[in-house]
């Protein structure tokens, strides 16, 4: 069976557990005439349930066949270069993650794909409607469009976003776009004005604890101490990321034979452990030898595709949390912001990560 | 310049009957070859011992830059040695001594597909032994820039090495090594250290061939100044007539020219041509001497930047000027990486200097694309300036390392392939559609961790059921039933996070990650995604992740893993689990087993039994411990 994080994923709007007000908006969207459905842009932190909510909404607009996924590898020809993209689709929707492509090819791919879907009218639904009439309250106006989910929309290049904005208008009869992203900052305003923006906040720690608690009950995980301090520990570690919380819970439960105690230690992802160790080392040693050792770990993290900005962010956080002197903390944060910009501008991230560490060491030497 | 050249052409046409000097004065015997005596002896004795059958070497590999007498030496050796050995083996039927002493592989024959030509050649020369003995010489390589041909080329060499059935004639491969200036191309980012850029033995042959005991490698160096001078003087004395005619003998001119030519490069062919050119010129023209440009090799260039020059006074400016002028391609993004990788080795740096250097490298990285020469210059000059001053004596022995970047990229690529596979597995088996970013950050660690525990538990329960079917059990969680060591990833994707170190040697990459296997990965992907992957899944994931092979050792490791934190408590927990199991529902057991085997048709029953047998031992141990 799947992991708990998927096993207990809600599949209908009614099952959604946290952030009632968003759920209510989605419910009302699904009850309206489906052809009035606007393009949607859901934004919120990682692990707050954007995708889950989208799928629930689709489920209520269409039917449960949206969970019948199939995967195709689509090939695109971009000036003599062949690109491959995994396209996950159901009878009613198509899901793409343009960031998988990397580089500046996303424009071509998005355009091609949307054009293809947009030019085909969803005729078959018209005939199906009589069968599924009882599912939809207003069967005459059944959805005549296909939904395209764009994951990770903030990684779309400006080029692609500009192309998207035209496509959205041109094919709006046949296509609805649901875009999901972590932050709105890199979405251009023409797109923002053409969609319904929905902010999905992260669940609070208390909400996470109650979700974890219900799953523990279903999975027969024993929790010693009924005050849930262990679950609270997981929730505060996950910091609003429900996915991370559930994965941590399951691995902890598995490692400790389905019994959780207050003393059970939280299982962090290994790369975070590596970064924690690294930050301790940086604070303690502050010399070139340590810098060179850090380099080999940085390379290894990059080889495991941990994004450089995540490395920089977490490293900064770990270092700050271990420091007491406010002036040094200011220096560290200042350096982090400088090198964060350089990460975005440069081509080899390793220079800047090591540069950050060296500068932080200098800052502490002062 | 154009004028000079046209005059030059006229002169040569006028004396057409005359050969090029490097052909005319080609050495006629071994003693004339411009090569170090000791090196020559090495080669001769090696070939002799192979011919005598005393040496286990089957292939002699001669490597070096162009114009350092590799082929001349080997051809002369063949001419001197082969007839003797033929005589020894000749039983009087044939006077073979007039046959050529060596056979050379050539790519001229267009009737054979280039794919097979090398194989066919090796096949056909196998019989050139005994009275027909010849030296097999390979100078011209098949077009190994195509991966297929390269693979076949390497395989046929391996076949030659491993062929123990009969005594093959000695195979000599001459490889002229060169670095080809890299055109900066963002898209080809990931195979940096390839045959396209560095045509050297490490890229032409693979590790297996280079490290094979049957291969004997001799490295040639550029010819030193003394030897070139000697050869040129020799020619000068023989060509007095020509020189006189062009009025070149006055005022010690030839000597000066010889010195200049000999000092400019270690390529004897180029040196002779230049000397001839100089000699042919009419008296009033005194052409500049353009020998083959001696490019600075990669490591040399990095070393210059990191260590500086021996002469303290021309430390920074002029030296970097020379470096930028001479390095084959200053745009090579590897060069900056090389400086970055090695900046710390010349001396003990303080952290502030290190951060200055990193600042410089970082700034030059964000200055624009790599094709912009200014940012590279900024980087080299800046780093050199910061490192100015003495070099620690011991540190000069530290080796310069090739940047880790390409190694990281290979590792990253293989990780990506694993992620792709993992992604498809989850979609097909668990109907879950993950995002790549989430896989990178969370699933790549958590999913194998959880599955590993589930897998252990499953085996444990299975073995208990088997050894003692009557015992009742803890209620089995349906989650663990579907875990299958053949398909599921039980180890962290991309391997555990341990440091990624630079190698002092360039050649230390795992064969697993070579280009060919990358292609295999891709094929799997296409193959997988084409259709019903669940049925193909087993065999694919087997060869994709050999690590998934589960054995007793692994099980022990898991036990350790699970015991790491609170081993004592862990055991009592186990105990507890079994105790409570007594009142578990007994009917379910059979159902579970049936379900287990019906749900997982991929289990071959006998191998599964084997697994359970091997497992039960270790499990019994645990039980005993408990």
Automatic annotation (TrEMBL), chain A:
A Gene Ontology molecular function term of the record: DNA binding
Native source organism of the sequence: Saccharomycodes ludwigii
Protein known as: Probable Replication factor C subunit 5
GO cellular component: Ctf18 RFC-like complex; DNA replication factor C complex; Elg1 RFC-like complex; Rad17 RFC-like complex
Alphabetical UniProt keywords: DNA replication
InterPro entries for this protein: AAA+_ATPase, DNA_pol3_clamp-load_cplx_C, DNA_Rep/Repair_Clamp_Loader, P-loop_NTPase
Matches recorded under Pfam families: DNA_pol3_delta2, RCF1-5-like_lid, RFC_C
Example GO biological process: DNA repair
Domain of life of the native organism: Eukaryota
Residue ranges constituting the AAA+ ATPase domain according to the UniProt record: 36-202
Automatic annotation (TrEMBL), chain B:
Domain (Checkpoint protein RAD24-like helical bundle) ranges: 294-411
UniProt key word Nucleus: yes
Gene3D superfamilies cross-referenced by the UniProt entry: P-loop containing nucleotide triphosphate hydrolases
Protein's organism: Saccharomycodes ludwigii
One GO MF term attached to the UniProt entry: chromatin binding
Identification of the protein by name: Checkpoint protein RAD24-like helical bundle domain-containing protein
One protein family per Pfam: RAD24_helical
Subcellular location: Nucleus
Keyword vocabulary terms for this entry: ATP-binding, Cell cycle, DNA damage, Nucleotide-binding, Nucleus
GO cellular component, one term: nucleus
Region (Disordered): 561-626
Family: Belongs to the rad17/RAD24 family.
Main location class: nucleus
Keyword Transcription regulation attached: no
Record's compositionally biased regions (Basic and acidic residues): 561-583
GO annotation terms (biological process): DNA damage checkpoint signaling; DNA repair; mitotic DNA replication checkpoint signaling
InterPro entries in alphabetical order: Checkpoint_prot_Rad17_Rad24, P-loop_NTPase, RAD24-like_helical
Extent of Polar residues compositional bias: 599-617
